[in-house]
Write a structure and sequence with these properties.
The complex is a heterodimer of chains A (about 500) and B (about 350).
Chain A: E1 10-21, E2 24-35, E3 39-43, H1 50-57, E4 65-71, E5 77-79, H2 85-90, E6 93-96, H3 108-113, H4 126-140, H5 155-168, E7 173-177, H6 185-200, E8 204-209, H7 212-218, E9 221-226, E10 229-235, H8 241-249, E11 266-275, E12 284-292, E13 295-300, H9 307-315, E14 322-327, E15 330-331, H10 337-342, E16 345-348, H11 352-356, H12 363-368, E17 378-379, E18 382-383, H13 385-398, H14 415-427, E19 433-437, H15 445-461, E20 464-468, H16 472-478, E21 481-486, E22 489-492, H17 498-505
Parallel strand pairs in A: 3-8, 3-9, 6-7, 7-8, 13-20, 13-21, 16-19, 19-20
Antiparallel strand pairs in A: 1-2, 1-4, 4-5, 9-10, 11-12, 11-14, 14-15, 17-18, 21-22
Helix pairs in contact in A: 8-17, 14-15
Chain B: E1 2-6, H1 12-36, H2 41-53, H3 56-81, H4 89-104, H5 112-141, H6 145-164, H7 200-217, H8 219-229, H9 231-236, H10 241-268, H11 279-289, H12 294-318, H13 324-344, E2 345-349, H14 352-355
Antiparallel strand pairs in B: 1-2
Helix pairs in contact in B: 1-13, 2-3, 2-12, 3-7, 3-10, 3-11, 3-12, 4-5, 4-6, 4-10, 4-11, 5-6, 5-10, 7-8, 7-12, 8-10, 11-12, 12-13
Chain lengths: ~500, ~350
Amino acid sequence: MRRPAFPMTTVLKLNGLSKRFGPVIANDDVSLTLNKGEVLALLGENGAGKTTLMNMLFGHYLPDSGSIEVADEAGVLQPLPLGHPQVALAAGVGMVHQHFTLAENISALDNITLGSEPLFALRRNRRAARRRIEAIIAQSGLTAPLDTPVGRLSVGERQRVEILKALYRDARILVLDEPTAVLTPQEADTLFENIRMMTAEGLSVIFISHKLREVLAFSDRIAVLRHGRKVGEMATSEADEASIARMMVGAETPELVGAAMVPGVPVLTLSGISVTGRSKRDTLSGVDLTVHAHEILGIAGVSGNGQSGLANVISGLMQPEQGLIKVNGSEIDTPSPVAMVRAGVGRIPEDRHREGIVGAMSVAENMVIERLDDPDVQSRGLLRREAIDDNADRLAKAYDVRGPGVEAPARLLSGGNIQKLILARVFDRSPRLILANQPTRGLDMGAAAEVGRRLLEARERGAGVVLISEDLDEILGLADRIMVIRDGELHEAPSRDREQIGLMMAGEPV
Amino acid sequence: MIRIEPRQTQSQAFTIGVPILSALIALGFAAIPLLAAGANPIQAYGEMFRGVFGSVFAFSEVLTRATPLIFTGLAAALAFRAKLWNIGAEGQLYLGAMAAVAIGSGVLDLPGILLLPLIVILGAAAGAAGMVAPTYLKTRFGADEVVTTLLLNFIILIFVQMMLEGPLQDPMSLGWPQSAPVLDQGMLPTLIDRMRVHSGLILALILALLAQFMLARSVWGFRLRAVGENAAAARHAGINVNRSLFGVAILSGGLAGLAGVSEVAGLKGYLTADLSPGFGYTGIVVAMLAGLSPMGVVIAALFIASVFVGADSMSRAMGVSSFLADLVVSVSLLCVLVGGFFARYRVVRASTTGATS
């Protein structure tokens, strides 16, 4: 929030970039400019198109339309040939991805120089490389032990190595994709200090984030994306949290689709559930939650805040270290997928390809995979193939699963039809509780609407639904009650107010 | 720019055509060293063919040679279907053979109707025991079973040598490291008079049929396939992945153990440390050639046995080295692997616009 130390010279211009993936519009006519020595924050919800936009800048994706101009060393804007990362690198664009691209078994120094040396050089001039890197470190304050294998560095150190790598390649424009997502608050503060030192030297930075607080504290200018469009741009000094949150999530609240119903008895109770996962995504601390019959409970949150942990506990894949799980009033002592299915839990997994189906096995087999012990599936250890096929034909018709037939491998189905297969498998057993984890992610409008319709139908029938979604519109449209998950904790949303929920998701005190 | 992308469907023609074409290409390649050795390849392959199909005796030798390969091929194929990489069939074979001579060579003087089944069952159990530790280490600690099963082979072989110079040594062997012979009533009966082919072959064929049936038709086979194709989805669906892995590990080790039983109690009669010329490892080749299908294993084992037996007789008739057999087998495996790649992927020529999305 201080004046850039340079006269307003533009170093980067994105002109009307658009990109679609099939029916999904990832970016629609987005234009941005970046000035020398400036920190531009790119804000937006998951799926708003931030990463796609930056990937076009860096040449990973080819835009459907639009152009990019980058200033050369003399400061004159030149058109950037699109779709070539090497060209983007040469033009001075450096990118640090959310997931680091470092080789863990070689030193930080070698990682930094890797790729900027000729392939068949007879000897490497390591001493000169080290001198250059040390000069960059002195200028930027990005300290990292250069001779330690990257595998032994902390996450913060690895990130600094990534940034050093970009600077070593003479980056004049640095793109940081959610740089603080993996950092502790202290590490994040250090990072921002370093960024300030670098921008004072003339570096321009775009950083992608959905954390309002850090954006307000450290950027010069803010651009907000929503559903692939740029919906706002302003100087940080003129912005406040409420206005940005409104821009990020949109102003209008969709109507609740289903008619109001009176909630029935509790079908799922979690009390004091704690799980220490491998990362923040599957860690829960002291989660309390109750879902009633005739009720859809929406779990909103920014991705990676414990949604996976919650889903793993309810689907039986993870045993909580502490806490009590009750399904339909009876306690589940040793949670497992089998125990949960037996207790009447229907589970729609987040990653339908990885956890939902066995792609190499037939559609019919995938439809009975959760109930292999049932008498209509097997008798005395042998599969009843006719009954399995009949079951599949019936379900395919009832749930409109389209594809090359029930005998064909499930992997040949489209994403929407794979989801319908899973819906058929889950809903056909009339579960009392349904866990739907990101049930419409990646689906086209038609298939997504079908998922919503089936969830509402189940609610009408008397089932309770836990709907985990990163799409606030979906939750506002379907859920009777909303909770927000953040850092592994669940909080009841006091209202259906978008802005307020958006602030809770971003971790602001309400 | 050339890009490789997965095929949506695998055609039946590919599944069957690739192994056959691979075998032909391998024979074609092998003609080059034959020419270099100054032999006429056509004549040489004629001799090879005669060595396989020239007489009942010739073909009976092929069957004899194929018998242990069917067992070890099934051991590899079943384990690989569950993505359990059992490279230890060689060691498990020796465990089975050791069990066979330990109880079959006079400790128990039972009638054949009791002794023979006992040898078969305990031999299989000994082979299965060889898979327990590697599978436990894999499921409990994530130890790579490729390494553990492979290294166990050497440990077991050294153990066999120790036993053959110690407790299992035949007192009548004049100091040779070999075991006492299996009692006559404990031997697997031969199938044809004065020929070596024995009833171990029948057992192998029955087990292959059974494995084929169980994989496709049983709940056990369903679970096994699901675990092998997508363990995460299998776990999510409530299949106990570790239990499935243990089950198939026991079966795989047992089948490899039966290869040892069949060689000792069907063919050699006693155990030496050179009982197997690598049947355990060749079993992996058999399984890969067979596309991990149990009935395919029978065909692949017959093919490989034919190449080896045929090459021996060619070598005698033409004076060229029988190492040619190894060459044919190796090249055909490479062709199958390459062919398998093209069956699963297709190579497309793509413009840069297509490649970036």
